[in-house]
Amino acid sequence: MPRVLFFNQTGLYGGAERSLYDLVTNYPGHCRVVLMQAGPLYDDLITAGVDTPVLGGGFQRATRRKWITLTIRLYSPIVVAIGLVRLSRGYDLIYANSMKAAVIAVLTKPFHRRKMVWHLRSLLIPEHFSPLARLVARWCGNWGADLVIANSDATARAYQSNGGKCLPVRAYNGFSIEKFRPEKRAELRAQLVVEHGLDPTHPIIGMIGRIGPWKGQALALLGLSMGTDWQLLVVGEALFESENFRQDFHESATRYTQTCNVFCLGHRDDIAEIMGGVDVVIHASTLPEPFGRVIVEAMLAGTPVIATNGGGVPEIVQNGVTGRLITPNSATALATAIEAALRETEQSRSMAVAARRYAEQHFALELTLPPVWQALRTMAAQSDGTENAPAVAAGAHESSIKG
Ligand code: UDP
Ligand code: GLC
Asked: Do 237 and 273 share a domain, yes or no?
């Protein structure tokens, strides 16, 4: 197996970092992870025994003085770039797990001279990125990356529509399915009720995920106010947003908490248990979601799921078979779907059973990781100069998968 240096911009946990953790801790060869910032991901990797240097962590903060902030902003990537070149010695390839990591890895390619893999986890579409950002992404993919991996077909298509020359290898996120226990749903619900002082006779709706402008929490609050006795658990934190956004969100959540049955639990690590304890999981992103880990997690938990139809989501949920897909950006559509999911109990239950089965068959780590390892092997074996060659195909995988 090639010696891989994984490179990521943050040490906080978004879905990309959850996926990175699984990639790294199951990698069947030698690897190292370089982060631009410490955080829980760093702590977990160190605990798992992974060599994880952090670069530039002390240069992240903004100050009130604009010129100091600007100097830091310019200085920080240079420090990271020099560090990356130094740390990549002895590795066969650099695996950039985020857009910023990819840009730095491409810019420094003449110095590190390693092959580069870009795991693209964003939809390169105008709704998500400015023209300049899409131009940079195009350049990165066409002139720097030797292999592009996309987290859904939708992400791969958007990459090509943005001018990307290669066809990315599509690799879905994988999950440790044994963490999810659908047979324990009643017990998990009872635990949630006690822990948060919920009314056990009223429906419990879960909205789990990073809080962000397009993640749909505001829409969910609005949708919830259309039901009379629904209790909404909002789980997650505004990890990558500005201080203003955080304040605005928390103020409006507090207002809803006082008038409706909304419970903001903040960031939680016991997601499998929460997913299993609620009656319905809602995903309400207002812009197309590149993949959407939380949807698969709800399916694995055996909980009826409602998700926004867009991006990679229809690759996960088949409407009316494994869940309910709704039109984006409509609080009414969301409320109607919640109402249907609660009323049509038999249908919801059989869809949840089908969803669990489908998720087991398509999104288990054992299934999703081998094609990635195969793609890396193929790419590393190609002689220099064969850039942008798509390498697809599942291959034999000798290591066992850790949960
Ligand atoms: N998550 C978590 N704790 C929280 C909120 C979210 O562990 O409090 C996890 C969630 O279970 C999922 C990931 O964060 O695995 C979010 O990934 P997703 O792909 O849904 O969205 P992203 O935040 O990456 O856009
Ligand atoms: C990104 C995307 C999300 C995806 C995750 C893991 O954070 O926004 O949709 O599930 O990466 O690939």
From this structure: yes
Quick: pLDDT tens for 161-191: 999 999 999 999 999 999 999 999 999 999 9
Tell me if 105 sits within 8 A of 140, measured CB to CB. no
Do 69 and 208 belong to one domain?
no
Query: Encoding tokens for residue 315?
Result: 């690759």
Cα(312) to ligand 2 centroid in Å equals: 10
Task: Count how many domains the chain has.
Answer: 2
Q: Are residues 246 and 318 in the same domain?
A: yes
Tokens of 282: 């809602």
198 in the same domain as 166: no
The answer to whether the CB of 292 is under 6 A from ligand 2 is yes
Could you tell me if residue 211 is inside a domain?
A: yes
Taking residue 382's Cβ as centre, other Cβ atoms within 10 Å add up to 14
- Nearest-CA neighbor of 159 among 187, 125, 130, 184? 125
The count of other CB atoms within 10 Å of the CB of residue 134 is 18
Atom of ligand 1 nearest to the CA of 236: 8
Range of the domain at 326: 177-362
Question: β-strands 169-170, 147-150: how paired?
Answer: parallel
Instruction: Give the tens place of pLDDT for each residue, 191-242.
Output: 999 999 999 999 999 999 999 989 999 899 888 888 778 999 999 988 877 7
Regarding the beta carbon of 14 and ligand 2, being less than 6 Å apart is answered yes
Q: Residue 233 to residues 122, 226, 282, 388: CA-CA distances in angstroms? A: 27, 16, 10, 44
Ligand 2 centroid distance, CA of 90 (Å): 30
Q: 122: closest CA among 39, 212, 3? A: 212
What is the sign of the dihedral through the CA atoms of 178, 17, 266 and 155? negative
Q: Are residues 93 and 139 in the same domain?
A: yes
Residues 192, 148 share a domain? no
Question: With a threshold of 0.85, does the pTM exceed it?
Answer: yes
Residues listed for the chain: 403
Residue 395 lies in a domain: no
